[in-house]
Amino acid sequence: MRVLLVEDDDRLAAALTTALARHGHRVTRAGLAVDALRLAGGADFVLLDLGLPDMDGLDVLRRLRRVSAVPLIVVTARTEEREVLRGLRSGADDYLVKPFRTAELMARMEAVVRRGTRPLPRRDDVVRVGDVLIDLETRHVTVAGEAVALTRREFDVLALLAREPGVVRSREEILDEVWGDPLLSASRSLDVHVAGLRAKTGRPGLVETLRGTGYRLGPPG
After folding, report:
1. Is pLDDT above 80 for 152?
2. Span 43-74, pLDDT tens digits
3. What pLDDT score does 111 carry?
């Protein structure tokens, strides 16, 4: 297989490249996120470190999953359960914590390949809800043709819901993805941003609250 190894540690990258080559894989190494995103299209498998110098690996994973269903394992030193869940929710097929044995990595790669390539989720760059247009690529929102100025986090909340319309996102999941801290669930921060979205767009039903469950993008109309 053509394996893209995204790892900024030179010594670890060299050791993994040697091990992968011994198992018959052709390895391309990227030390930066920008190179990983550029090279991923030519890979059959991706091994992704999260601690990259130019971009967080989870952001790389999310961007990659918008356009590719390539099998991918996160290989990282981050051991917290929250980080594991964020990696899997963002689209990783598996999550392996450093240090690990080469045999375990190979076994996990084989298991991911046996499961088959995941279907590529439908990712429209522009999501329409009634007369509201949400451009996920340019981070631009219009209502009835008029531009609406949102804060960064207001748009991030809206974009998370818009990427999979109809899917309910829990408070903890939104706080984890947007704020990076699910423990903020006891605060009113998310409620304030949702209220801001409804007020600025003038569409109270744009973000629908499911009491005790979470939020989802509201239906048109």
Report:
1. yes
2. 999 999 999 999 989 889 988 888 788 999 99
3. 92
Query: What's this model's pTM, rounded to 2 decimal places?
Result: 0.60
What residue type is assigned to position 68 of the chain? Answer: S
Q: What's the mean per-residue pLDDT of the chain? A: 88
Long-range (24+ apart) CB contacts under 8 A made by 99-102 are 100/75, 102/16, 102/19
CA–CA dist 47, 61 (Å, integer) = 11
Q: Is the pLDDT assigned to residue 119 strictly greater than 80?
A: no
- Per DSSP bridges, beta strands 45-48 and 72-76 are parallel
Q: Is 136 exposed, middle or buried (0-12, 13-18, 19+ CB in 10 A)?
A: middle
Q: For residue 11, which amino acid is it? A: R
pLDDT for residue 115: 82
Alpha-carbon span 156 to 136, nearest angstrom: 9
Of the CATH numbers 2.60.40.1930, 1.10.10.10, 3.90.1150.10, 3.40.50.2300, which one belongs to the domain with range 126-217? 1.10.10.10
Tokens of 51: 């601690």
**85: pLDDT strictly greater than 90:** no
Angle at CA of residue 17, ends 56 and 40, nearest 5°: 45
Chosen CATH of 2-115 out of 3.10.105.10, 3.40.50.2300, 3.20.140.10, 3.30.565.10: 3.40.50.2300
